Amino acid sequence: MLRTWLLLAAAVGLNAQIPYSRIEQAAREPQNWLTYSGRLDGQRYSTLTQITPANVKNLELKWVLQTHAPAEPNSKYEATSLVADGILYTVQPPNVVVALDAATGKIFWTYAHQPAAASRPCCGRINRGLAILGHTLFMGTIDGYLIALDARDGHLMWSNKLGRPEEGYSVTVAPLIVKDKVIAGPAGGEFGISGYLSAYSAETGKELWRFNTIPQPGEPGHESWGGDSWKHGGGSVWTTGSYDPELNLIYWGIGNAGPDWNGDLRPGDNLYTSSFIALDADTGKLKWHFQFTPHDEFDFDATQVPVLADVEWQGKPRKVVMNANRNGYFYVLDRVTGEFLLGKPMGKITWASGLDAKGVPIRTGHSTPEGSIVYPENQGITNWYNPAFSPRTGMLYVPCWMDTWSVYTSRVEPYQEGNWYSGGGATHNVPPLRPGPVTRRLPDIAWGAIQAFDVKTGAVKWQFKMTDVTDSGVLATATDLVFAGGREGYFYALDARTGKELWKTMVGGAVSAGPTAYAVDGKEYISIPAGNAIFTFGLREQ
Amino acid sequence: MALKRVLAATLLTAAGLAAQEGHGVSPADLERGMQIFLNSCAGCHGPDGDLISGVNFSSGQFRRAQTDNDLRQIVRKGIPGTPMPPGNYSDQEAGMIVAYLHSMAASGAARRATSTGDPAAGKSIVEGKGECLQCHRIGRLGTVAGPDLTGIGGMRRAVDLEKSLIDPDAEIRPDNMTVRAVAKDGTKISGRLMNMDTYSLQILESGSERLRTLRKGQLREYEVLKKSPMPNYRDKLSAQEISDVVTYLVSLKENM
User: Above 90 in pLDDT, residue A84?
Assistant: First the structure.
């Protein structure tokens, strides 16, 4: 009897759990968090309305998921959780996938990918999250694979090697689903990789198209690399892009040029490093590009999330893409054409004195053999930590490192497979990885902030200051709340219009991931990974 | 029934051997030892412990170890100059692995020539008249209703696989248990047990194939089935066909 029943179950269970239509229209189901940024537009904007400025003080801890992974110093918990119909999917560092009940934290299954010993991610054994389509989850691994798992039981469906870990290829980006394709590419910009962004069949893992972020001989842009410097030009992919279904364009931020700190070894603008690229989703053909930091000498990746919005621009509706860039400027571009509309500094910058009418930086600082002090430090004013945009306030909320500088030194270093290939060095007055729980650095050396920028003017509308810097992502809500944390271990709810602190809690470890908002059985939750754990909050039962 | 007795004898023998050295071994210890062995040792030694030339755990003979203490040391420290690596185990865990090695030796006597069939014939039975893929998955074929057989040859011994085919109720591993529940409103719910605690059961629900939490307070009743939903193939397949199926399953070493 039971067997008959199971056979019936097998026959009807083939329906896709999360068809692409649900991902494209994720705004219609705010109870779920179906992509890295919640939606394809990269806004990280939740339209759930149960948690408000009036009741946010009543948030209480609902559950914690502890992990085995040592979160520090090189194994941060950076993954944004996905939530699909009451199931939360996360990646514990480095590559352990967990499916759990989003309301209770109880685990259904785990899948531990064992990375090869040859893995050498530049900046921590980390992962930024999953993608989901149908009943399949997709994850990059620090030893260079893109893998697919059955979301129901963690069964490995396929695996595709994107690059050899021995050469420094790793995959830390949360993939993006566009139609039936999985969009992803390799990291490894500090090891002289040759980057690319590709589309893979969600069904089989087969590569369907590839865009070389370092143009190969014969490809447009190849002339922007002197001599043979293109061969190890970097151009990594390590933070998730966005997609506009109407324009059918994928927007993606590309990493720094290699070697990082010696531009003399690679004469030219070094396309498409430190750029946004807009690609046709079906073919991978370049529609436009915008290079924020031509001939980068500071490790200023442009991997930050492209945030898409339709705004009124000088009296007319305009489709724009925003970027809070590691190089210290806040940009607004026309996302149809790539035209530069606005660029404003987010803090103290000395590598450029400003941007010209086309957004090209007016260079005033360089990395030099003797070493030069340049603001900001090589982690930038912001980095991969995701921003959030509220269409209600018209503000982009950005995690920032303020008043930091590095001594940038250039050296001549030969390329050797698998070795660090940075062409020099950069000092840090704030270490890129939190060295431990104790900080004695005074705020006049460097400090952290969540800053709110007016999309129309680039003006700073408010600033929420922290003594230590923040690697936290940000979440904005339709009730005018902003959630974010920092290295100090606090997790905050701020007023989205004023930046006023409305609630905070201590999570006891650095917040290095983006918060998610979701709902189960009509109850709203806010979830944040921090330190070695995920903390999930909801309103106290009345 | 004979197999049940062998298993019981195995447990007693293994427990007895370990007890001689002052380490009590419970069935749970043995289960944990098997899990560690299958996850960490079977990759090189094979699930039957006989893949490496000159080493056969089923024989009960250990060339480099006189005592259980020697075996635990090898498990923990490896054998320098050989591919046998050190393992990151506590002495207690090493003891569980050693207990499992003894159990393999004890059940080795009960091994039959089950893995000498025709794997191609076995494959065709699994995918055809055996209807195995209506509940099981192998690679991209089949469903998630029952245990995943992808890579099963690297995880289970031939003797265990045969036992599952001809006496599926003899041993239901914790990974493969089925829950049947009735909600307070009378709705019947069933699925594979994924996790459980005092207040809730996590299941992969049959039918919808969705992950679902059942709160015990919202159930009229529930039961973790002691019987396997797997049909008994003793009378459905000939001895040769069983051997063919087992041989095919043993050949499934890859995880994908």
Answer: yes
